[in-house]
Design a protein that fits this description.
It is a single chain. This protein is α/β, with parallel strands linked by helices. Helices cover about 35% and strands about 20% of the residues. The chain has six helices and nine strands. The strands form two sheets. Strands 2-1-3-4-9-8 form a six-stranded mixed β-sheet, sandwiched between helices. The chain has a three-stranded mixed β-sheet with strand order 6-5-7. It is globular. The protein starts with 11 loop residues before the first helix and ends with a strand.
């Protein structure tokens, strides 16, 4: 249980999925540059990945102020010299905060990868559209977009547990839900992002890796 003055939030799934995700990230991320993590949540992934993925730099971002506070609290607890303070970023916006001229915290030209863990099913589909459009604008040719989470394939759930999870999500918010991988892939391709690899992960999740192509 959190102390009243402890801003850290805890996501139990992080402890279970961080090692398998790290294994994929080590293999697919560009060897240098800044990794922009969108919807960083509690910050537990950021503090785990950053020191293990040097010399890459890790830039967390989060739309919710309470979660940005959690990220900062985790950074104080587990510091890493290649982990930057979190920024406000809402992927559904047509122009991301880091693209604004007044932004000075993030050097957008150094971003070589974007990571989105457990985002697109816990958000409206407009977030997926915004994520793909933003990745297209920001990533250099050869840059990587990494997604992690449950997906439907061929319009069908890959496991009964995912079907139950999808139902629960839609009860919370009718705009949420497990997405069709083929639909996500189509939106990515429209934005110049080519499906590079699909990796089956524990608990019926997938790692889905896209690469920015020259158009």
């Amino acid at each position: 249980m959190n102390h009243p003055n402890d801003a850290r939030r805890f996501a139990p799934a992080t402890q279970r999925n961080r090692e398998p995700i790290l294994k994929v990230l080590r293999r697919v991320l560009p060897p240098t540059g800044t990794v922009l993590e969108v919807a960083s949540g509690s910050g537990e992934h950021a503090i785990f990945f950053a020191p293990r993925l040097k010399p890459r730099l890790w830039q967390p971002s989060e739309a919710e102020p309470i979660l940005r506070d959690s990220i900062l609290a985790w950074m104080k607890e587990v510091p890493s010299d290649n982990l930057f303070p979190p920024i406000h970023l809402n992927v559904a916006e047509s122009v991301w905060s880091i693209e604004s001229p007044e932004n000075s915290q993030v050097n957008v030209s150094e971003i070589t990868a974007i990571v989105a863990i457990n985002l697109i099913h816990i958000s409206p589909f407009t977030a997926t559209l915004g994520l793909m459009a933003g990745a297209s604008r920001i990533l250099p040719v050869g840059g990587i977009l990494y997604l992690y989470g449950p997906f439907k394939r061929g319009g069908k759930h890959t496991a009964p547990s995912n079907a139950s999870f999808d139902e629960m999500l839609q009860q919370q918010n009718s705009e949420w839900g497990v997405r069709n991988l083929e639909e996500v892939e189509a939106v990515a391709l429209e934005n110049g992002l080519n499906l590079l690899e699909i990796v089956e992960m524990p608990a019926n999740n997938l790692s889905v890796v896209f690469q920015k192509i020259d158009r």
